Amino acid sequence: MNIHHARILLITAALALLAGCSAESKKNQALERGLTYFKTGDYERARLEYQTVLQKFPDDPNATEHLALIWYERGATLRALNLLAKMTTLAPGNLDLRLKKARLLFAIGRIAEARNEAAAIIKSSSSAADAFVLLTESVRDPEDLKAADDLMQKHQEKGKAPYHLAAANLANLRGDLNGAKAAVQRALALDPKSAAAHAALAGVHARQGNTPQALAEYKTAAELAPLRSPERLAQIHYLIQNGSSPEALTLLNDVVRQAPDYLPALHTLAQVALTEKRYDDAIGFLQKALGVEASDHEALILRARIRQARGEIGPALEEFAKFGATFKGLNLEKYYLALAHLQNRDEAAAIVALQQSLALFPDQVEAGLLLAKLQIRAGTPQPAVEAMTSLVSRRPDLLQAYETLIEATKALGKLAELATAVTTAQEKSPQNAQLHYLLGRVRVEQKQGEAARKSFEQALAAAPNLLAAWFELAELDLREGKTADALQRAQVLVEKLPNLAAGHLLLGRVLAIRGDWNAAYRAAAKTTELDPNNRGANGLLADFFMARVKQPETLPALDAYLQRHPNEQLATLLGGQIYTAAGQFARARDLYEAYVKMNPSSGIIYNNLANLYADNLGNLPKALETARKARALEPTSPSVADTLGWILYQQKDYVGALPLVEEAARNLPDNPEIQLHVGLVQRNLGNEAAAQAALRRAAQSPGTSTVKSEAKRLLAAGPAAPAKAPTTEQPKQP
Question: Cα separations (Å) of 449 from 44, 403, 445, 470, 475?
């Protein structure tokens, strides 16, 4: 080799070395900048720095870990999960990252994987108290419960608060609310500033019906928790559940203001807007979420659900299909796809979607219950029996599963066999309160009152806080005319749990049956104070006011009630109904108009207002305009379809009215008033055979009413009968 060639090689090697040093130096600088941004919460700038590093060093553990944490903090479940899975390979000993991965698996419904990962973390670490919480949250059947209990006994960490929170989870699974509360209090004694412990105590209070205490604990938990935390969202969700949406939205908007890239908060805002039928607002929140993460699966599912809620079933089905193709095998959309198929009146497709969902996520309770109900309706109750038998063994606390199991078994004609099976199981577990409760419900269906009563009493002896058994005993008392016993039960329940709305409602019902309407009114009013959206209480109040509608003190009492419940939909419906019955049509109109001015997305109020304009105020043009608004907001409501169809009929637009009233009749085939409307529209179109069929259905409906009488008169009168039907006896609701 000559000197010239040697010099060239030396220079080339030096340049390569310098380039390598330069690349490493740039990487380290980017990592330092990324860490600075990460620590200050500037996640977007940090993301860009770490992303730059990974472009040249795709397996750099530092950049991968921090990028995973950024997406974890943002709530981007799938993206964070992919990066955390990669970190399992790059840094298998990092148990904190493995626990985060397990929590994300739990969040997308992969419960068994999450449980196995939590158990593995516990077995490989002498300090894994947080993993116990996830382990116990993922218990789904008695075997899981025993395995978790054994693991906790073997790896006791009683000096750490999370261990006691896990013990509280196990106590809850056993139906031991007092034991759960004691365990949470032990956790708080060890760590008084634990946000998770305060949230757990709030959950105990909520299950006991102690709403004020639950609210206070959720507030404390939120104040102690970081801005991006499940505890803050738990407080917000509980406020929404208890009718405090304005306060919840204030807190939620404050979170978004401080952390505009926090996806769970944006999802919650969209969900609230969807519930309130503020569809454009909901779409706006989702667009912000998708701006943060274009593949945000929750936002994409919510967007399809908004289309579904708007009645855009075809586009919704397309979006769900696109989601399934994009996130192949994830199956998170299948449950909502099933709901869309049901809205499209395709129960067979809904059953297939639910089966696909449950194949991957057997713990998806809502899907399992819905599939069982559809199978019962389709005349194939046997798979529903098998599924619900499995579900109640895994989730003995899920009383809705017991009801579905009984319904399916009844459809098979095998209630006696179910009773025998439950009795056999009781011999092995004589202290199992849920088995006693299930047998009691079976005995009720078999009309064996005394046997049912004995079972419910045994359930309460084993679990004094099993309120469902308490209510069943009260129902038996009422059915057997033992109103004094029912009253005593209701009074004890209210005394023990003064913040349980259902207890006050039970008391109100018993008092009404006993004829003590003033006390019944007070109990129903207390119920709505605790639960403004309680339909049973509003129905009881409606009965109270309707029975006294002509008494001079009734309307002032109603006015006072409405002042205590301003801008609440059920209270507005109640007020409009009573004002209408009292002949105070202008006051009913003003009440409805004031409500829709504040809540322009309320189709149910527009529907009642349209009926009022048509039937009582004689303003058909205004009625038609209002009914069209209701239809736009509630495109799938049969009652709204009937209202619009009936108003078109009154304007002699029989061709326009027919598809609307027929749509209503398909969805509410047993409603005599709707059948009467179909009959009259068909008669005026000259379709006498169809008219008579609908009128016969109205005339043969159960009970007695002026609608039935009118249907019989029209049948007897024949085609020349006047094109007029009685006005609605009660305001209709979607």
Answer: 65, 17, 9, 15, 11
Dig out the tokens for 711 from the structure. 């249907």
Least trusted range by pLDDT, from 5-9, 194-198, 287-291, 665-669: 5-9
Nearest to 169 by CA among 179, 160, 159: 179
Instruction: Determine the Cα–Cα distance for residues 157 and 148; give it in Å rounded to an integer.
Output: 14
Smallest Cα–Cα separation from 506: which of 464, 534, 532, 533?
Answer: 534
The dotted CATH code for 490-599 is 1.25.40.10
| Residues 207 and 217 sit within 8 Å (Cβ to Cβ) | no
Higher pLDDT, 510 or 9: 510
How many angstroms separate the CA atoms of 265 and 268, rounded? 5
Task: Please tell me the predicted confidence (pLDDT) of residue 444.
Answer: 93
* Residue 354 to residue 351: CA distance in whole angstroms: 5
691 closest CA partner among 668, 723, 667: 723
Which sequence spans correspond to the domains of the chain? 48-228, 490-599, 601-734
| CA distance readout (Å), 350 to 126, 319, 347, 383, 713 | 47, 16, 5, 16, 42
CATH architecture of 601-734: Alpha Horseshoe (1.25)
CATH number corresponding to 48-228: 1.25.40.10
DSSP state letter for 566: T
Sign for the pseudo-dihedral over CA of 249, 251, 256, 262: negative
Q: Which two tokens stand for residue 30?
A: 């980017």
Question: What is the pTM assigned to this prediction?
Answer: 0.72
As to burial, measured by CB atoms within 10 angstroms (0-12 exposed, 13-18 middle, 19+ buried), residue 262 is: buried
Q: Do domains 490-599 and 601-734 have the same CATH topology?
A: yes
Distance from C-alpha of 663 to C-alpha of 249, rounded to nearest angstrom: 37
Q: What is the pLDDT of residue 728?
A: 46
Whole-angstrom distance, CA of residue 60 vs CA of residue 38: 17
pLDDT score recorded for residue 730: 42
**pLDDT tier, 732 (very low <50, low <70, confident <90, very high otherwise):** very low
